[in-house]
Write a structure and sequence with these properties.
The complex is a heterodimer of chains A (about 140) and B (about 150). Chain A has 3 helices and 5 strands. In chain A, a hairpin with a 4-residue loop joins strand 3 and strand 4. The two termini of chain B are about 25 Å apart. Classes of the chains: A alpha+beta (about 140), B alpha+beta (about 150). Strand 2 of chain A pairs antiparallel with strand 2 of chain B.
Chain lengths: ~140, ~150
C-alpha cells in the first residue's frame, strides 16, 4: 500500500485486483444507474444477451471503469483521481473471472502526479478494457 | 494533422458542431446511490461509502454514468453504425452529495482512423458538470465510433 508520492517507483506494478463481475452485481449496477430498462437484457440475463447476438451478459462499461479506480484506491488510499480514460476493446462478460493489473508509467514529482496504465483481462489473458489514469498523491 | 489532410465531411462536421452546446440537464445526486455505486465498484474507503463521513464524496467516475437528454445533436450526421468506444472522466473538484449538478453537453472532438475495414469516425461528446452556483466540478467524455458501411 502506498501513502505518498515518494513511495512510488517508476515501473512499479500495482497489486492485481479481482473485481466482482458476477451477473448479480452487473445487473444490480445497471438497474442502479437506470440502464436496466431500454437496454434489453444485455446486463441482466445471459439468455437475453445471446438473443442480441452477444456471447453472454455484459458488465456495464462504466462499472469496469469504476473497478479501475477502486483498484487504484486499494493500492493508494489517499490518491485523488485527476483523469481516467478507458477504451472498451471487447465485452467484459458477467460471471467470467477477470483480473485488473496496473503499472506506473510516469511520475511528476513537481506536480505530485502519477500516471498509470490499467488493464482488465479475462482468464484467457485477453484484454477487455484498457485504461490510463492520472492521480495525485501527497508528497 | 494538417488541416488539408482532414476529410471534407469531417471538416464540415467539425466546423458546424465542435464546442456548440446542444443539451442541458439537471441531475439530483443522491448519496445513497453514489454509495451503492462505489460499493459495487469495489471501493472500501469510508469517504465513498458512508454518507456520514465528513469527507463523503461520489466516486470519481460516477459522472460517467449520467446521461444528458441526448448524446449527439439532432442533426448530427450518421457516418455509420455507432458503438461505445470508451469513456473518460476529468475530476476537477469532489462531488459531495446530496447536490444538484447541471450537465452541459457539447461535441468536444471529431476525428477519424482508417483500418483494414475502412474509415471509422470517432465523436467525443463531453458533459461539463457544474454545481448550481456555477462551480465546474467534472467533465465526462463519451467516445462513440461509427464504422462506415462498406
Amino acid at each position: 500500500m502506498v501513502d505518498s508520492l515518494k513511495e512510488v517507483e517508476f515501473g512499479e506494478e500495482l497489486p492485481a485486483f479481482e473485481p466482482d463481475t458476477s451477473l448479480k452485481t452487473g445487473s444490480a449496477f445497471a438497474a442502479l444507474i437506470g440502464w436496466g430498462q431500454g437496454m434489453g437484457g444485455r446486463f441482466a440475463s445471459h439468455e437475453d444477451a445471446k438473443k442480441e447476438g452477444l456471447p453472454g451478459a455484459m458488465i456495464p462499461g462504466v462499472l469496469s471503469q469504476g473497478y479501475l479506480v477502486a483498484m487504484i484506491h486499494h493500492w493508494a488510499p489517499a490518491a485523488d483521481i485527476r483523469k481516467i480514460d478507458t477504451v472498451f476493446r471487447a465485452p467484459v462478460l458477467a460471471d467470467d473471472k477477470h483480473t485488473i493489473t496496473g503499472v506506473v508509467t510516469d511520475i511528476d514529482e513537481d506536480q505530485g502526479l502519477v500516471e498509470l496504465d490499467l488493464t482488465v483481462a479475462n482468464e484467457k489473458g485477453e484484454t477487455r478494457v484498457f485504461g490510463t489514469a492520472t492521480i495525485s498523491l501527497p508528497a | 494533422m494538417a488541416e488539408e489532410e482532414v476529410d471534407i465531411d469531417i471538416k464540415q462536421a467539425r466546423d458546424k458542431f465542435l464546442n456548440q452546446e446542444f443539451d442541458e440537464k439537471v441531475f439530483d445526486i443522491d448519496p445513497d446511490v453514489t454509495a451503492q455505486y462505489a460499493r459495487m465498484c469495489g471501493e472500501t474507503a469510508s469517504r465513498f461509502l458512508d454518507p456520514a463521513d465528513p469527507d463523503f464524496q461520489a466516486p470519481p467516475t460516477f459522472v460517467a454514468s449520467l446521461s444528458g437528454g441526448r448524446m449527439l445533436p439532432a442533426d448530427y450526421p450518421r457516418f455509420g453504425i455507432g458503438m461505445d468506444a470508451g469513456k473518460g472522466v476529468e475530476c476537477i473538484a469532489p462531488i459531495r452529495p446530496p447536490v444538484k449538478l447541471v450537465g452541459k453537453t457539447h461535441i468536444h472532438d471529431i476525428y477519424t482512423k482508417t483500418g483494414r475495414s475502412g474509415r471509422m469516425v470517432f465523436t467525443v461528446s463531453r458533459i461539463e458538470f457544474y454545481t448550481e452556483d456555477g462551480k465546474h466540478v467534472a467533465n465526462a467524455d463519451s467516445r462513440q465510433v461509427m464504422r462506415e458501411r462498406g
